[in-house]
Amino acid sequence: MSVPIRLDNLTVTYERHPAVHHVSGAFQPGSLTAIAGPNGAGKSTLLKAIIGELRPAEGSVDRGELTRNDFGYLPQAADIVRHFPISVADTIMLGAWKNSGAFGRFSRADAERARDALAAVGLAGFERRHIGSLSAGQFQRVLFARLLLQDARIILLDEPFTAIDQRTTRDLLDIVLRWHGDGRTVIAVLHDFDQVRGHFPETLLIARELVGWGRTEDVMNPDNLIKARAMAEHWDEDAGDCAPEREPAHRKLAKREPAE
Ligand code: ADP
Ligand code: MG
């Protein structure tokens, strides 16, 4: 029933320029993993490849028996259009509808579940509010309510707490930890290293290539963090195509045994 999500030599490119390069390893079922790395390290690209929104240029993502509906995905805030004349209730129910593939109207049970989900994120009574009228923190709570409603086995969060107030961060982090307690697989791109060390047992540290992947205390050491920074500083944005026959820059530097 539960199998790992395996990345095998995964390379994802934009116009043949690699954003994720030769990444291998596995997310175990029920694991709680932080994805860390410098800006432009390929973290968002990696999430999009895991859910199948981007196709590998090389290598593969093996999702076992999982289908698109098993994945709940929270995009990075910058990728979400909020100037849309839509209510809070519709935002979360349309998300659930899209995922379930159900057609048309919402049942009374759907509306009830939506209300419960909003209450669970501290937004009871916000159903009819226009999403454009919400603060960043409130909007992020709405998106978490949508994830609650989706009830997915695998949950991917792209910088869920960036530009979010502390109180909201605490509340939403609690939900993340509850998902983990339920046995769901949770993968979150995070910038706050204290948060990663405090709450995330596994970390995948990436700078286009893998720097480390395994137990957080093993991966988030000063050497690896310096290495990730150094790799980012040496990126050549005009570097050539991803040519499989050529040994990529930093390959030896980056080589690490992925967690099993
Ligand atoms: P991160 O999330 O770690 O900041 P991204 O995955 O967003 O990194 O981006 C990795 C690299 O790919 C960056 O150099 C970025 O500029 C580039 N990139 C991301 N999205 C696109 C795109 N749609 N088209 C071209 N290049 C992109
Ligand atoms: Mg990103």
TrEMBL record:
Question: For this protein, what is any one GO molecular function term?
Answer: ATP binding
* Family the entry assigns: Belongs to the ABC transporter superfamily.
Which keywords has UniProt assigned to this entry?
ATP-binding, Ion transport, Nucleotide-binding, Transport, Zinc, Zinc transport
Comp. bias (Basic and acidic residues): 243-260
- Which species is listed as the source? Rhizobium jaguaris
Q: Name one GO biological process term.
A: zinc ion transport
Task: State the name under which the record lists this protein.
Answer: ABC transporter ATP-binding protein
Q: Which residues form the ABC transporter domain?
A: 5-232
Classification from the root reads: Bacteria, Pseudomonadati, Pseudomonadota, Alphaproteobacteria, Hyphomicrobiales
**Which residues lie within the region annotated Disordered?**
237-260
